[in-house]
Design brief:
Mean pLDDT: 85
Distance between the termini: 35 Å
Radius of gyration: 23 Å
Largest sheet: 6 strands, mixed
Number of strands: 14
Shape: globular
Helix content: 25-40%
Order of helices and strands: EEEHEEEHHHEHEHEEEEEHEH
Amino acid sequence: MIRVEHVSKQYEKAERKALNDISFELGDGEMLGLIGQNGAGKSTLLKILCKFIRADEGDVFVDGESILHRDNSLSRVGILLEPVYFPYLSAWENLAFYLNVHGRPSELSEIDPMLELVGLQKNRDQKPTEFSFGMKQRLGLAQALLGKPRVLVLDEPFVGLDPTGVKELIGILKKKVAEEGMQAIISSHQLYELNEVCERMLVLYNGELVFDGIPAFVPEITLDLDHPYEGELGERYPVTVENGGMRIIVAESDPDQMLKEVLAHYRIKNVASRGSALERFFEEERS
C-alpha cells in the first residue's frame, strides 16, 4: 500500500505552496489517476514520490516503510517521468545499463520479453535517437516495468502514441497491474484515456487536493423548454433544473429515449451538449 501523509512543498520565492497538506492512500491492484490544470502541483507530487525533489513536510510510505527517509527505497518503484537515454546505446543496451547501474544484472533476461510486450522487440538494436517520441515513451514504459515493480509512477504515458498505441498501452497497464497486484499513479491531461485505466481520480488545484474519488465521467445534454419543467421524467434520469425551471440538464445515458419522453410534454427550444463535470474543470476558471 502507498500512503501519502500531509505532504507540502513550497519553492523558493513562490507566493503559494506548490503542494499543501496532501494525503491519500492507494491499495494493491489499484490505479489512480492524477489530474489538474497546469501548475496544479501534479509534477511536484510525482517528483516527491520519486525522490527527485524533497518535500518540506510530510512523508510517503510504501508497505508501511518511509521512502523519503531511507536509501535504496525506490528499488521496486517503476518510474516514467522524464526518460533519459544514452544516444550511443541501443534500446536493449539502455535497459541493460539501467539494470546494471541499479545492481540488478540477474534481470537482464527480462529485457527481450519486455521489449516484446511494449512493441519494440524488432527495434531492440536501434538507438533511441532513431525513435519517434511515441517509441521513446514505449521504451520508458519498458524500463519502468522491468523487475516487477510494486509501484508505478507514470507522467503523461499516452503522449505521442497513436490510437492503436494508446489502446495497447491501456491493455499492458491493466494486465500488469491485475497479474502482479502492483499500484499505479498515472498523471495525464488525456481524460478519456485516463478514465479507461483508472476508476479513482485525484484532482489537484493550486496545490490543494480538491477531489478524491470516482468522478461522474458522463457528458450532459442541456435542453431549453417552452415552459417550466414539472418533473415528468421522474427518477429515471438525473435531471438538474436551472434558471427557474426553464432549462434541464440530463446525462446522455440514453438520449434518444429521454428526448422522446421530453417531447411528449414540451416543445424543445434549443438543445446543446456539454462535457462532463470532470472535463469542465479544465475548461472553466474556478472562482
